Amino acid sequence: MRGLSWFAVVRLGLVQTALGAIVVLTTSTLNRVMVVELALPAILPGLLVGLHYAVQMLRPRMGWGADMGGRRSPWILGGVAVLAAGGVLASVATALMAEWVAPGVALSLAAFFVIGVGVAAAGTNLLALLAAETHPRRRPAAATLVWIMMIAGFAVTATVAGRLLDPYSPARLVAVCSGVSLAALLVAALALWRVEPARSARFDARPEPEGARQPFAAALAEVWREREARVFAIFVFVSMLAYSAQDLLLEPFAGEVFGRSIGQSTQLAGIQNGGTLLGMIAAAVAGSVFRASMRAWTVGGCLFSAAALVVLVGAGRALPLEATYLALGLGNGAFAAAAIASMMLLAGQGRTRREGTRMGLWGAAQAIAFGLGGVVGTAALDLSRLALGDAAAAYALVFVLIALMFAAAAWLGARISAAPLPPAPAFARHAPGD
Question: Tens digits of per-residue pLDDT, 156-185?
Answer without folding.
Answer: 887 788 788 888 899 999 999 999 999 999
